[in-house]
Amino acid sequence: CTITHPTTKEFYDLRGLSRFPDEQHAVDWHANPYDYGPAKGGNFSLNVCAPLIRSTQKLSKSQNISAMYTDEDEKMVSLGQTSTTLKFRGKKLILEYTGGSACPGDTSYKRSTLIVFTCDAAMVGTASVSYLGEVNDCGFVFEYRTFRACATTPDVSSALSPGVVFAIILGVALLVYMVGGCMYNRTVLHQAGWRQVPHADLWQSMGVWMQD
């Protein structure tokens, strides 16, 4: 549930919006349906890059559902299967869920969900989820306003192997050792030339040993 913009190279991480059953007090995201549905009631349940937490056993295809509508009579309609593939449409960051319940009128088409993520720096620690509309009771559009949709710096350490991280640390340590040692020998011990090098006698003896 992360992506790097192909042009700007900015990094986006939406993993903090995912809800999981093993988290304390975890619940799905909900959106008010407003004027959707014949009874003008019920609610939308969504999760980001993960299946819904609530039970979906009433549905014939109940596994890995990430968007669903439940009416006032607890009838459930799947609006799409789980996906972790974020995409950009211009400057808009989106996530699509497909393969939901059959669309009315033509069962060869399946309901789907399009989620648009909008950067909102004021929404720290939470998100605002809104239902924007639907097309032919088959395609549904939602918006998440959250600080997590703002560009961040990628976690470089997680992308590097342990060997590379160790080499970087070792290189920095050697640089500090050489620069700090030279400055100390020059300013405090008043050494000059190669005698400024930390432990110059040791390095000289090692050079002689290698020549032998």
Automatic annotation (TrEMBL):
InterPro entries reported for this sequence: Man-6-P_rcpt, Man6P_isomerase_rcpt-bd_dom_sf, MRH_dom
GO CC annotation, single: late endosome
Membrane-spanning parts: 159-180
UniProt keyword annotation of Transport present: yes
Keyword Repressor: no
Full protein name: Mannose-6-phosphate receptor binding domain-containing protein
Start and end residues of each MRH domain: 1-152
GO process annotations (BP): vacuolar transport
Subcellular localization(s) per the UniProt record: Endomembrane system
Keywords assigned by UniProt, alphabetized: Disulfide bond, Glycoprotein, Membrane, Receptor, Signal, Transmembrane, Transmembrane helix, Transport
Short name of any one Pfam family annotated for the protein: Man-6-P_recep
Predominant subcellular localization, coarse grouping: membrane
